[in-house]
Amino acid sequence: MLKQIRVHGRGGQGAVTSCELLAIAAFKDGKYSQSFPFFGVARRGAPVMAFTRIDDKFIRLREQVTKPDYVMVLDPTLIDVIDVHEGITDTGIIIVNTSKSPSELNIKTKAKVVTVDITKISLEIIGAPFVNTPMLGAFAKVIGEVSLKSIILAIEEKMPEKIAKKNIDAVKKVFEVTKL
Question: What's the pLDDT band for 41 if we cut at 50, 70, 90?
Fold first, then answer.
């Protein structure tokens, strides 16, 4: 069954990279996938979106994701700037990188909201606030559309070894601490 994912971030945070890695991981799990960005007049720090689709059969759609099943929010300040839950299905799930609880975010939606402090983990393990790749650990834990093993394989394939190791360690830690 087709699953659509939208990632909200700011220019330079790696939303596009996280979607690409997610699509590669899905492919490694034997599924069809596609990922693509939406920039508009993007610049570093401006709100950006990227998308991934995952299905058990060939994907023919080629437009933006307007009714996502899942949303990942890399930067919690975007919640005050844009409607990150726009179009999400009532049974959808939103994962937000924040130290706040879901109720503190005050997102008006029927979708489930999950929070995890990915920035803290990234600072500890990677040494910088790179949250795009570690967010995939939360996605694997909460959503289960892709396996943690395939996410790790995708990272190893796309990143230099030294960078990959820290990102994999951060993904594993986020997977471990994320609560359903």
Answer: low
* Domain interval for residue 161: 3-177
CATH of the domain at 75: 3.40.920.10
- Type of residue at 35: S
**75 has pLDDT over 80:** yes
The Cα–Cα gap between 55 and 76 comes to 28
Residues 77, 61: Cα–Cα separation, whole Å: 31
Query: Structural domain tally of the chain?
Result: 1
- Residue 85 has a pLDDT of 95
The span from the CA of 107 to the CA of 57, in Å, is 33
Contact 77, 13 (CB under 8 A): no
Around Cβ 152, how many Cβ atoms within 10 Å? 21
Mean of pLDDT values over 104-110: 92
Q: Residue 143 in 3-state DSSP?
A: coil
Packing angle between helix 161-177 and helix 135-142, nearest 10 degrees?
A: 40
| pLDDT exceeds 80 at position 42 | no
Cα separation of 32 and 95, whole Å? 23
Average pLDDT over residues 136-163: 96
Instruction: Find, among 54, 56, 48, 82, the residue nearest to 70 by Cα.
Output: 54
